Structure formats: structure tokens, C-alpha cells
Amino acid sequence: MFLTHITRLNKQRGFLELDLVLGNWVEENVNSMDENTVKSLIHVLDLENPDLWKWLTGQEQPPEIVSSNPVFLALHKKVMTNLNKHAAPKTRAEAGQPWVKGWDDFKRGRDAPISGNQ
Known about the structure:
This protein is mainly alpha-helical and 118 residues long.
């Protein structure tokens, strides 16, 4: 029951990419989780969405407490494997740079973009 609850929660973060990544990973691994793995998963689930996404996709380096978490490491490996398999490196933002390029927060998309790839 507890693990079913975790599976439902991680699919409803409000951040579609994380919902998909976390939900699929939990479904694939939930039956083999021991107590320590569940605790590591809960720590990952408690992280803020934007930070977690940047860390999982390699845009930023996570803090040591996160980078040593076995669930985070497994998720990061899965995300990077999928990125490397399906997205050419030149289509991704460089480490430390925003992923969405060219968005002008001041115009907020009212007119054609000034620059970028929208």
C-alpha cells in the first residue's frame, strides 16, 4: 500500500517531464525496493522540481547529498542514457545554461520571438 501511494504521488508533481521519468522508474523498480531504497526515493521526491530536473539532465551539478543518493544516481543514468540515445548533444543547452533558449520574459511571447527557437 505504501509503495502504491509513492507511485501515485511521483506521477503528480505538476512537472510533466519529472512525472514521466519518476513514474516510470518507480514502476520499474518498486517491487525490488528495500527500506533504504524507499528512504532514498523519498529524499529525491522531496527535492524541488526545477533543481531536480537541472541535476537529472546535467545542466547543473547537484550537491553532494543528492549526487550520492542511489535513487538519484539511477534516475540520472536513465535520463542521460535517453538523452544520449534520442537527442544530439548540440540540441541541448550547455551545462550551466538555461534549457529553454530564446524566451523573452519581458515580452512574454506577445509578439514573434526576438531570438531563439520557439
